[in-house]
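[SOLVED] Need 3D model of a two-part complex

Original post:
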Amino acid sequence: MIYWFILVLIIIFQRIQKKKDIFYLKPALYIFIIGALLRVLTLNDISEFLMRTSFIFFIVGLVLSYETK
Amino acid sequence: MKKTIIFILVAAVILVTIWFRDGHIMGTAEDSLIFYNISRFLPESQFAWMEHPGLGRVTINLTAGRPTYEALTFLHQLGLANFLIQAIVFWFILVSAGTGIYLLVREFFPHLSSKYALLSVLFYWFNPLSLVNVWNRFLTDYIFSFGLLPIATFIFVRGLNRRSYLWPFILVLILPLYSFAFTYLAFDILLWIFFFFITLLFFLTHRQLPGKLFYIKYFLLSLLLFSFTNIWWISQLASFNLFNNINSSVLNFDISGNLGTLDVLSKKMGNLTDVFSLTNASFVNENSLYWVRIFHLPPFIVISYLIIAGILYAIIKGIKNSSILILGGLFFISIYLAKGINPPFGEIYQFIFANVPYLQVFRNPFEKASFILSLSASLLIGYSVFNLSQQLPKFRQLLYITFLGFIAVMWGFPFYTGLVFTSPESPANNPQIGYKVQVPEYYQEADQWLSSQGENFRFIGFPLGDEGITYNWEKGYSGVELSSALFSTPGILHNTAVPYYHTLVPQIQETLLTQDDFLKLANALNARFLFVRHDINFELRKMEDPAAIDKNLASREKNDEIKKVALFGQLTFWENLKWQDRTFYPANKIINSPSQEVVELLSVDVLQGDVLVDEQENLQLQDVKLPEISYEKINPARYKVHVSGAQSSFVLVFSELFNNAWQASYRDNRIDKHFRGNFYANGWLIDKTGEFDLIIEYLPQKLLELGEKISVISYMLLAGIFILLVSRKIKIKRS
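Solution:
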């Protein structure tokens, strides 16, 4: 449920701020890298949470890219 | 381009030479050992009903593989060694996969140097998903799917890019080469889901309406052409609903059970930490072989993440490029499908899964979606290394060599050494054996001897167990029991998820060991021979000791019930001395039962015209002299039965697995009263007297034959239209 909440927050934020795709894509990559590092350090739960968050950011970024195409 | 294609051809030759250098076929798991005698599997694709295992079963979409079986049977009949046929198939698959990826990369990135496209090819061949889910899994339908996906995607994308309706024609014309892939129902659906998403992404990345309309028409045309040319096996899937016989392990519509499986497998394998690193989480455990554990050490995980990070970076940098946008979209769609119902947004997957019956085959989402995940990641990897080289021009060579080294050397290592064909179970855990199998010659002798005894009986193999079996041959085998591969005569050698059969089989051996009346059960099953095999690892498989079976059979020999008639190596054959052909027999002694239990067959003497029937059938027949029955087997799905001397109504029993779609008819008039008898068999109440003929047929066979005609005509028409279109194009070019 928390991920739906994150998505709703991002959508509301986007409605107000009208950011470009790159605004979401770059953090998505950073979050992914941090998640990967934590996974290597066997902090699996937090790593999984970050990967899922990164996934949402990527999806939002890609959807915006399609919209502006 | 030429050099890369030559590299693919040669590298594939080297790989299959390493794998098959000592002349053994390979086989394991559910795939049985189809290359041991490929021609033996041809009937499974020719008819809607097959006689294996033991009591028969529906073939459903196994019929899809017919073109492949026909081609490979042709090679077999030419006298090509079995291992060579398997090697040729694997070479063909590697070349198809490699060429498809190369052409796709060039299609999406026309200016990308060939050396980067080569990285994509090697990535597709050797990445952990291909390693685990295709090559180590070692299922022929998966391997064909692996080979077909890139080349089919290339043709599909080429047509979209060029906005040409010619390419769907090319697509369907090449599909028979890979028809075995379509015996894998999940792949059939996955392929069209994948094409749908590709079309959708092209649709989204183009602004003008005519282009958007073209994409929709192109997808629909492709689907239409595919449906018509493949109607012969698609009709078999439809027949499941038409004939109300949906109880099958292949098409399992038990939604609540499947949801449970989906939930478990999503939690186990759908974590994004694993999916992003292309890791099959179920592959590594405490029993894993040493090389598998090495592959899951932290340095390997780090490098896997770095590769994916490179891909993600390339997506971000190239987001304005339509190709990147399409491939990035496909990559994330694949990730989404692979994680199943895990968060985020797994509820959408669950909703669709629960509401579309045919999507039940996606209850193992990671395994299914890994095909498209592997493909989309492969298409991006070459570009991502190129992109990194652009960012870091000083390290261009180093970057390329590092990526090439990791993909080709580290990931490729299990392929060069053959370790990819090993697994934790004995004997496949021995690297000298792995999946290599050498079937002892006495099996061929036994099969020939059985065939020489006629075609109107079954045999039962002991010890009887579940699907899994381990043979102690020099190059042994571990996987699903090999009854179809080893014997052309239908035999009961293992249990499997076939209705009635799976309840009956566990009780056969128990009856043999504990009951005096075993032969009544054997006769009801039309079993003429019993055989004991001493070359299996019965302890590992928790089966009965063959010596205990031998002892039991020896005591029955003393009572003149059975007789030892043949010995082939480790196989001993005993003949049931009370056996008479009961494929078809007339019965008028009805033994009513509230719910037909297997144990009740011990009170049924099929030789005296007994038949066990559900009491609600309310059958009452006169005890008069039974008619004479003779029959002709036209094929496994059709028989002609001749009845003479019928004085009164009787039950015609057909000792093949009960199925609603079996039909008896007299002069094209269907006999209405069809019911289950003797627990597993078919029975019809025949109200006629005198002498007459009946046709017994499995109805989906008619559909199959009609479908074959439509498919052949469609192919001929398509080929004609294709030639016309090409010649018109050539004319236009010349003028």
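Edit: DSSP finds three helices and no strands in chain A.
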